Task: structure prediction
Amino acid sequence: MTISPAAATDAADTVFRVRDLTKVYHMGEVDVHALRGVDLDLVAGELMVLLGPSGSGKSTLLNILGGLDTASGGTVHYRDQDLTHADEQRLTAYRRFHVGFVFQFYNLMPSLTARENVQAVTEIVPNPMTAEEALALVHLQDRMDHFPAQLSGGEQQRVAIARAIAKNPSVLLCDEPTGALDSETGILVLEALERANQELGTTTALITHNADISGMADRVVRIMDGKISSIERNTTRVKASELSW
Amino acid sequence: MGVLNRKLWRDLVEMRGMVLAIALVQVGGIATFVMSLSTYDTLLIARDNYYRDQRFADVFALLKRAPDSLAGRLQAIPGVERMQTRVVAAARLAVPGFNDPVIGTLVSIPESRNPELNALHLQQGRLLSADRDDETLINESFAKEHNLKPGDRITATINGRRKQLTIAGIAMSPEYMYAIAPGAVFPDFKRYGILWMGRTALAAAYNMEGAFNDVSFKLEEGAIVEDVIEQLDQVVARYGGHGAFARKDQTSHRFLSEELKGLETMAAVFPVIFLGVAAFLLNVVITRLVNTQRNQIAILKAFGYSNLAVGRHYAALVVVIVMLGLAGGIAVGIWMGKGLSALYMEFYKFPFTDYYLNAEVILLAALVSLVAGMSGTLMAVYRAVRLPPAEAMRPETPATYRTTIIERLGLQRLFSQPTRMIARHIERRPVKTLLTVGGIASACGIIMVANFQEDAIIYMIDVQYAMSQNQDLTVTLIEPTSRNALHSLAGIEGVQHAEGMRAVPARLRHEHRTYRGSLQGMEPDGVLRKVLDSDLQRVALPVEGVVLTDFLAELLAIKPGQSLTVEVLEGNRPVLEVPVAGLTSEYLGVSAYMQRATVNRLMKEGDVINAVFLDVDEWHSDRILRELDDMPRVAGTIIRETAIRSFHKTMEETILFFSFITALLGGIIAFGVVYNSAHIALSERDRELASLRVLGFTRGEVAYILLGELGVATLLALPLGYLFGYALCSYLSNQFRSDLYRVPLVLEADTVAFASSVVLVSAIISGLLLWRKLNRLDLIGVLKTRE
Result:
């Protein structure tokens, strides 16, 4: 089922509103058009999967949504804030108080333990959960004092999720969170994300090139060559534990 | 910010090797800085306090003999606050158990009290007692050399008459801090002593009853020294005045001032180089360190840390490193400063040893280091935070490599793939390579300076004593004597050759410039004493005219062909006009040379000499010295060998201390630069190198790619370092020019070789340390994580 993006959502609950978004990278002597006019809305509480092959522009879209990157053209609104014209200071505040990130390569601070990696975030936001609570949510209460080098890939990624959700963000943006993991470990990670989405009501956008994951989403957005090629709504969400690939 | 602080500490511990290397260079720079400046301050303050406490005079005058009644007229000269007449006599001394000739200067002091001017600082014993005429005080360095104590006895031959003296006390005086025999170039504490005797006793022994031959003045505040001297000269002219002179021309003060000037140069040049290199290193290392943390900076930003917070975090990292270097540098600097100050104070006979450290010195050192560290950090952090986090987290776009000139010339077949990688890497980042080369080159230059001083000293000794002054003994006569005296000296058994000389104290003048020195009348065909030019070729003394040391000509701004005014300061004090016939190049002292016969003619005095150079058979030298000692007309004898020894000793104590420190710190810099460059190169390229290993390159090949670049940088740095070292030495040689000595710019091959070795060894040690790290490269780990 394909529907037009604007009609799919109720304007009052819209967390992100993206219109005609473009992004051009100048890589050395080459121009790369990563996004060529994207329109998309994200509704509060939903879990959206962005599906696309590598190079399709999905990471770029996610980075712009998270205030990690700036657009070349078009507009992005987070609720009533215009992110496209926000200055560095406002983007910093936006990331600090509203967004949780999970990256494919975990990006933990190697010199900090699991607990401290989470604390690095909880220290700078109001009303966070404790690092211990966040790590318990991802079932890592027993590994809190280990350094990243002492944790497996899946554990590291779960620390990264705990770090992202500990601040009680409004949105959780995950870039290939299972990309570097085997399916068994990947499912553990997805369960953690699912739990955050359902128990905390965090609006979640998840990037993957793995179509098997799309079953757990409310909506699946497919991206090709910098444009949205289709948006599908799942009538029922499959539990993360029931996924396999 | 508790967690970030923990990250900071762990990062520091993780990078401890690099942190230590940087801190070490910082320690070197700051320690030299603190040592030099604090020693300089300490000596300056100590000198001024000493001068003030002992009421060191402002103006001095020597004359032949003036009645005590003249004192009133001298006191009345406008600008004079206080004055003091004295009897000063030259004497030969005999110390029990020591056979070498010893000469002394006897200075009168009031019986039983300290003089009002040039007061003595009593170290041991007591002042003279009023009712005895055979007591003396002796200077501390002389006492120490001969282990003399109060109560010991010493014999002085004054005017040909022997007098037994008992030592009442051991003293120091600001007038003889640098106790140097008249005519000598360097002090010889063992063979020259200062004896202070009661005025009445000394006057009786020297036929100066009711008269004086030396006067010193303390001037009123605001008095003009030149005016006082002019008036003074007029008053004492008819009493055989030798020309009054200001404190700045007083021998001891001048030597001390030159030494302080040298120290000031050292304090200005070396710390600047060290701090500069340390700062540069800090800057480079911190910049690259921050670059390697680019990804972590991006993540901190992604979490919402502000640019300011990130900047503060890295600033704190640098502050810790800088503080480590600063604390170590200040501690080592104080330790070395105390040592060096004590060395100087001992050498110059300061009666106290307080050490001063100006807070400004420390603040300045801290400021320079912090600015250097911070500018690097903030620039790098700024570059990192300027990028949107998403971009900073992406691996940097592949660096643009180009084919090198080797390949463009079609020479690649001559070079292996790894060699070509080295060449491309160097060519891609020429500035980075250049900075590394610059750092290593400055280390090389500094080490060269250390040895340059030794080279220069050896060369000076060689020229002064082996080529120019071939005499074994220099005998000075108490007054101008007929040349026939030469025959009686030449007749002593064992004397192989004797040459006479006539030296006349004179004020040399050209236009408004003057120099107080002497006119040296030499035998034109003499073989013992030769006047050399800068090519070490003998300068022929013309019948008419004077040959000047080039530096003296510079001081007087006079050129060959121009006329020099010679105001003779003895006898009838004639004023002569003599053409400058040529220049000579000498490193010790300055002189005006003429043919002896010409001097005799100008002085209208007949065929006379007042010094004799002797070439003696070594077997007979002890007996010859004894015979000379018994001759009443002999004022003193200087032995060449002991002159060379005392010269060595003087130089070793002062300059060589610096040389050692310099070589050590140069080595530290070389190591710091090479080790850090290599270490950073590894951390920047570990992925690339691990990939090569995965592709089947051997450890040796990978090490070659990494270390080859450093090898090239080191080899490029050496010639550059020689140039830098040469420039530095030439600067120092220029700074050290004075009428007392000029340090020639001599760089021996072994100096260059030594500097090269220190640099190469530092590089090799760094290479080995890196090789170990390279062998532990985690191939899988490196490839699994992102940059």
Summary: The two ends of chain B are 26 Å apart (CA to CA). DSSP finds 22 helices and 20 strands in chain B.
